[in-house]
Amino acid sequence: MAIGSEMKHSCGSAVIVDQTAVCESSRLLDHAPVGREFGFYLGRGLYSGIGLQYRTAIQSWWLPSNEERLIELSALLDAILLYENLFVLASENPPDGDRLTLRSALLDRGILRVLDTRPYSHPISSELESFLANAHSTGYRLDTWHSLADPRAVAQTVRACLELSTPPSGWSSHYEPKEDLAEGLRGALEGVLADRWLVERVKELEREYHKDPLRALALELLDHIGYFESGSVIAGISHLRTFVYWRLSEHANMPFSPSLRRLAEYHRMTEYVRESAQERVYGAVADAFRSTVSEVFEGEQPAILYLPPALALFLETFRRGKDITKSVDHLREEYAPLRKMLAKYQEDISNSATLGQARTAKRKFNESLTRISEKFDNPHPAFVNQALDIVPSVASMAADPLNVEKYAENLVQRPVEWLRNWWLNRPLSPIFKLRDHLLALRDYGNLLQEATGIALQKEQIGIVLQNHVKTNTLFRHLGRIPGADPTDPHAE
Length: 492
Fold this sequence. Notes:
- By secondary structure, the protein is α/β, with parallel strands linked by helices.
- The protein has helices at 19-29, 36-43, 48-57, 66-82, 101-108, 121-136, 151-162, 178-186, 196-209, 213-227, 232-251, 260-288, 293-299, 310-321, 324-334, 336-350, 355-373, 392-395, 404-412, 416-424, 434-439, 445-452, 458-476; strands at 14-17, 85-89, 112-115, 256-257, 303-307, 380-386, 428-432.
- A 4-stranded parallel sheet has the order 3-2-1-4.
- It is globular and about 60 Å long.
């Protein structure tokens, strides 16, 4: 798997996509096993220790299914429509990656590229160590029988994985060698983020850390990795991968599109930063542009996208020719104007000198999109907005780089010109309405069966929808700031 050369990415034309979403989409078309059998299928390519834990974890309440994979495929195809380049991390190499037809086709066509993670290994692992150490230092245990993993050992393992090197030998907990943790990270193993422990502990976490869901999730991560057994470490690895994606998106200055399982946790983290920092930041930005907070707030509202039914179009083309590459190429060629429009919108915002010019760019983008979407059959809505997150250059100034309150204080003290440039050059992030994709699952049953021979199960569709709602509700209530604006398009 070749690693892409170092480059400055055009944020309007590039997005980091969750390796889980890419692989699960591919596994659907390749008829990979589902349910508990999937644990044995993937576990065969893993070392014995982590393989055993994965097979144990895969027996949890949220089992892999074709219905979930169809959701991942639908969202992945939306990203393929909107972005010239999709990136997966070089530090993640799934055990079956080379056998996945869609994934290989996207790599061969240059649509999917591999992001070199080595330049980010030191800053991200340093942030992680500080983040976990601060949670660990409280001495608080979620379970008196569990030992928390060592923050430094976990961070060293992440650094080695991002560096594409072998982690130093040793133990990150009483049970677990770093090699096993690294194997799970490299294999992009995915468990259940809203596992039964988090469900049971959410009220306790709210009570102890009601103002800081990031610290609550850090404790959850350390507890899972420290306990290790009964598949617990796989949930810990999933939490750890969410952290890596979150910080790498900021360091690489590219938006991130999470998988269905990661969506709720990832957006709880990013929305917590926005909720906590926006009041002070909006005021500082308004002053920098000699504007008002209301104008800043208005500009922050997501732009609505109306996208063609990419999944139906892909399956219809695939049904006729049974050729994955040609089916993807057809989508790319047919809807190339969408990608050009999004890239132009990002460029126009970045080149704006005032908030008024940025609003004009958004209006022109919406007008152009409205004209082109009139030609689509059954378009579905999505959103795009600029992220308000922890900027690495500001975070690095602090001893505790991911302390949100201190971050906001440091940010608003930056020079006026820096604030203006940063505000206008933030990348546009996609917000795919996965709830709409979930509710539309039944509509694709016949087409999916004709194209692939796979039959959707009505009961399983209901289970996937229930799991999504359950997970979303759990994370939305973890650390919700009183009085925060609940109108969040991610939540649906």
